[in-house]
Amino acid sequence: MDMKKIRRESYRRPSWDEYFLEVAKLVAKRSTCLRRQVGAVAVRDKRILSTGYNGAPSGLAHCADIGCLRQKLNIPSGQRQELCRALHAEQNVIIQAVIHKVDLEDSVIYVTSQPCVICSKMLISVGVKEIVILDGYPDELAKEMLKEAGIKVRKLK
Length: 157
Description:
The protein has seven helices and five strands. The protein is α/β, with parallel strands linked by helices and 157 residues long. Strands 2-1-3-4-5 form a five-stranded mixed β-sheet, with helices on both faces. Helix 6 (117-125) links the parallel strand 3 (108-113) and strand 4. The chain is globular, with a radius of gyration of 17 Å. The mean pLDDT is 92.
């Protein structure tokens, strides 16, 4: 019995896209947002550069502890992002990269949800070359700006 053949037939390694999106899903579990848990991972040359999840800035109370202003005001998803205590996962990826002096130019961002327009502008500005997502987000301007910037956005199936 050839054990290598049996192992190959019974086990499938995830693709790199699947692997990094699974990492993003794990990172999202750290989220303190009551409405949407999002995780993001910045990668270059199959190496993780930075991770981020959505939550309040360091040292501030989290929505999970004090409640969600957006829920209280009944604000629909994709609107009035400024009325939120949390930083988005993509913003935290950038912040963590800056803190640790990591360049994100030409990186790929794996994120559990399509970036909003604010995050899209930030990702464009730091030189991200591609975004791989699991789910969409109701923000057409973000899609238009990413397309205009030549940033490829792929939704993994």
